[in-house]
Write a structure and sequence with these properties.
Blueprint (H helix, E strand, L loop, with lengths): L9 E7 L3 E8 L7 E7 L9 H16 L7 E6 L5 H12 L6 E5 L4 H4 L6 E5 L3 E6 L5 E5 L11 H18 L5 H9 L5 H9 L4 H5 L3 H8 L3 H23 L6 E5 L1 H5 L1 H14 L4 E4 L5 H15 L4
Parallel strand pairs: 1-4, 4-5, 6-9, 9-10
Antiparallel strand pairs: 1-2, 2-3, 6-7, 7-8
Helix pairs in contact: 1-2, 4-6, 4-9, 5-8, 8-9, 9-11
Length: about 300
């Protein structure tokens, strides 16, 4: 089994995420839509930073689903955990010892721009966590944000719940009456009062345990909570600041592609980000991802295949 075409006429795109791995075997010709997709859990991955083990595991995965000939195929990987140029090159180097075809590794957020037809776009991921990425004129990977659910990840699901909890507790301390956001957080965390709320939130063991309650913030805004809307607007401003930070450090792109479960599902946050960008970076155009990032891996793989194939 070699995918939709023989190995010399196909490319492979990989979206190597933290929870799932999406692989697409596609025809090398950009005009062809012929494709076969495979999605598996990323439980096969080694701990982040073990690039040799990741390369070996990915080779085994691709051979299992595409046959031995995949080692001669052009492969592009968007990898969660490759957050610097050096990390991308480290995984790329390990893959090149296991594949004979052209190989390229980028951060997984860098798949969003190509998927939307904007290869050099600034990518802003807003899901359980948040980060912005772009390349400068020399091809160096630049990142802003992404410092994790305890230290940062503003605008993300976890970040919204953390900031909402702090805001609600501050209202308690001020003696202000309970409003929709406070009621929703108390219910969500099965808390009777502010002490129980603080304890329940502080006892969460992961970003996911915080982030799953993020819809409560948007629901409270829908119910007319000024506090919830202010938090959403602040999150949009925080995300816009990530874009400004990347532009100040050398990326020249005037296109932003934002994706991830939170930004794609929540129009209020989309509008807050759009409004914030209009103030801080009026030349920038915002697009919300509306397709699978793996599409971007195929775009990059086809480009790499074309540039690596001698003209006749």
């Amino acid at each position: 089994m070699t995918g939709p075409t023989e190995s010399g006429h196909q490319v492979i795109g990989v979206d190597l995420g933290g929870t799932k791995t999406h692989v697409a075997f596609a025809a090398a010709a950009g005009s062809s839509v012929e494709r076969r997709d495979v999605v598996v859990p990323s439980s096969w991955r080694a701990p982040l930073g073990d690039f040799a083990a990741d390369a070996e595991g990915l080779r085994d995965l691709l051979v299992a689903h595409g046959g031995d000939s995949v080692v001669d195929t052009t492969v592009v990987v968007g990898a969660h955990g490759c957050d610097s140029t050096a990390q991308c090159l480290a995984l790329e180097t390990e893959l090149r010892t296991r594949f004979r075809g052209p190989v390229r590794v980028v951060n997984d957020s860098e798949l969003m721009g190509p998927a939307m037809g904007a290869v050099t776009a600034i990518g802003v991921v807003v899901g359980t966590g948040s980060i912005a990425t772009a390349r400068n004129a020399t091809g160096e990977l630049l990142t802003a944000g992404g410092w994790g659910w305890l230290l940062g990840d503003e605008g993300s699901a976890a970040g919204l719940v953390r900031d909402a909890t702090r805001a609600v507790l501050a209202r308690f301390d001020d003696g202000d009456p309970l409003e929709p956001l406070g009621r929703r957080l108390l219910d969500a965390f099965h808390a009777q009062d502010r002490a129980e709320l603080a304890l329940a939130v502080s006892s969460a063991e992961s970003a996911e345990n915080w982030g799953r309650h993020a819809p409560e913030v948007f629901a409270a805004a829908d119910e007319g909570s000024p506090l919830a809307q202010a938090l959403i607007d602040h999150a949009g401003a925080d995300l816009a600041r990530l874009v400004s930070q990347l532009r100040a450090r050398g990326t020249t792109s005037d296109t932003v592609v934002a994706g991830g479960t939170v930004i794609q599902r929540q129009p209020r946050l989309q509008q807050s980000l759009r409004s914030a960008l209009a103030e801080t970076a009026p030349a920038v155009t915002l697009h919300i991802l509306d397709r699978a990032p793996i599409d971007g891996a195929i775009v990059l793989a086809r480009d790499l295949h074309a540039s690596s194939t001698p003209s006749r």
